[in-house]
Amino acid sequence: MSNISEETLPPTDLITLTRHILAEQSRLGSRATGDLTMLLNAIQLTSKFIATNVRKARLINLVGLAGETNVQGEEQKKLDVLSNDIMVNALRASGKTAVLVSEELDEAVIIDERNRGKYCVVFDPLDGSSNIDAGVNIGTIFGIYQVGAESSGTIEDVLKPGSQMVAAGYTMYGSSANLVLSTGNGVNGFTLDNGLGEFILTHPDIKIPSRGKIYSFNEGNSMYFHEPVINYLNSIKYPSQEKGKKSPYSARYIGSMVADVHRTLLYGGIFGYPDDKKSKNGKLRMLYEAFPMAYLTEQVSPPSFMQKYPSDGVIGGRNGYNREEAHT
Description:
Strand order of the largest sheet: 4-3-5-6-7-8-9-10
Mean pLDDT: 86
Number of helices: 8
Radius of gyration: 20 Å
């Protein structure tokens, strides 16, 4: 029998998402009740369920419009509606939630008292759904708040700053399903092993490079950009050579926030979708897009400028964006 070197053998000591969550619970000791662990396991299940349907969407006629619009006035895709139903049902069934707020619903879901827990979840069940039919990466974004000590679970429990979230993350669906999560102790990335049916730790303790080489803005809207934004983009496309040779940034824009942010967290650079003359309040939803992504960015590159200024709609390494320059 030929000898097989250890390098050719697959790893056997796998850190699954479930194992990671349980380790975080153990780290907290007697302070942990296990409720957040069970809630995160429910979110893990929804990610697997949605990933399965995204992969076979074309085969089971889940592409195309559902014939409705969401609270933002956007036309809903069939997969939007299904993903929302998956999340609402799984989170309600966990018994650990009190309030659910979804981009796809006009009103918050208040869980009945019998099944009510102590957490509130805000989420975009399928970000980037306009790209579904083209097979471009899309994703789920979520943030978790804890119900106030004197509250029984109302909409007021989610109308709080993003810094008060207890956990946040996203799952990206593409060539692989990647779940990125933080519970306030760093950011870790997991990849779904379809054979095992488990998310495996593949990106431990993610740290965004302080400065990258990629910028990600929808420059199709540049005619509506405010002058400071145009000046900033020109500064990274045509860098000054006065302080030594600098290379211009390269443009990469997918049009799916989860995919663009995922690349930015791993490779550095800048992602932005700021307000402009057409969209005076910006296009990013503060509660279930900007806040969760800012929470993650704060963990991978403190201090994060998006955590401090989420209304700017900009994410990136600490040396990639000068807010003062961009607003002068």
